[in-house]
Design goal:
This protein is mostly helical. It contains twelve helices and three strands.
Length: 308
């Protein structure tokens, strides 16, 4: 084959499978800053996950840099370094915090190894601790949900908590909700939720909740739940504080996730099927949904041994 303009012979190249191309080039290792590698690792991850994982890795690096005259880079971290950090720092944290830190470290070094930035993965030998199930600790009765909602300072806050309870939406999904995500229907409305794992699902709400939401239209914002200070979408931190404060006034320890837990648990108690609950909650696996059933619907098998 020849170029039609230059008449120079062209060489046919073999097909290259793009999946075999690594995330890094052949440049020297020294040219890659840790911040660049962390950015590659966290590319396209949700904002909340990105912030949490970045914090974990930089906390690790700051620990390793303590007392050193030169900065230890990601490629220089050894298994001994990670084990010392786990023993000295992570084991003093709550189990969930330790598990998140180890998960972040394992994920980062797996990416660096697959990208051929390093040849040995020191984090592969770290074991993520198994966490104790705490579903029952986050259980709210319907009466407690009502008591917390009754303490809302504004109609916006009350409607937000009702939406959390009657749909089971995550707090991040609730604060990101815009009016274009809500489509009216003859019996209420359909809410389009873009949630965890970049997956879209649809939740149907009744007429009463739809009317509550429509009453907020007067706030004049694209977001259904705008911040009173900025006029932009409320942050998850703001929503968290609103629920925690209302719960405290009601004498109850609760957060937004308690409302999601209550929604799923109460649906199980009402006889709604597992697959239906899974789809509405946006769970990837029915096993996750089933945990909520196990926390509230267990039978006291030992009662059959009681004498009548």
């Amino acid at each position: 084959m020849r170029d039609i303009q230059t008449n120079v012979a062209l060489t046919t190249l073999d097909y290259i499978d793009a999946t075999e191309v690594t995330i890094l080039s052949d440049e020297p290792e020294e040219s890659y800053e840790d911040s660049t590698l962390i950015g590659v690792w966290l590319h396209d991850t949700p904002a909340d996950t990105r912030r949490a994982y970045e914090r974990e890795i930089y906390t690790l690096l700051n620990y390793l840099d303590a007392g050193r005259t030169d900065r230890k880079r990601l490629r220089d971290v050894s298994l001994v370094d990670l084990q010392q950090y786990d023993t000295s720092v992570l084991r003093g944290k709550a189990p969930a915090s330790r598990a998140r830190a180890i998960a972040a470290t394992r994920s980062l070094y797996k990416t660096l190894t697959l990208g051929r930035y390093i040849t040995f993965n020191p984090a592969a030998f770290l074991k993520t601790p198994k966490l104790e199930e705490t579903q029952t600790e986050r259980y709210l009765t319907p009466e407690q949900v009502e008591a917390i909602t009754a303490q809302a300072k504004t109609q916006r806050d009350r409607t937000m908590m009702n939406l959390m309870y009657f749909t089971g939406m995550r707090v991040s999904e609730v604060v990101a909700l815009t009016w274009k995500d809500i489509t009216p229907s003859p019996s209420g409305a359909t809410i389009k939720v873009f949630g965890k794992g970049s997956k879209t699902r649809y939740i149907y709400i009744d007429e009463e909740l739809t009317q509550e939401l429509n009453a907020l239209h007067g706030l004049g914002a694209d977001c259904v739940f705008p911040s009173g200070k900025t006029g932009k979408c409320m942050t998850t931190t703001q929503a968290q504080r609103i629920v925690v404060d209302a719960a405290a006034k009601a004498g109850i320890d609760a957060s937004p996730h308690y409302f999601r837990h209550a929604h799923i648990s109460h649906l199980w108690q009402a006889g709604v099927t597992g697959p239906e609950i899974r789809d509405e909650a946006g769970h990837a696996n029915i096993a996750t949904t089933s945990k909520y059933a196990h926390s509230v619907s267990g039978k006291a098998l030992g009662s059959v041994l009681r004498r009548k």
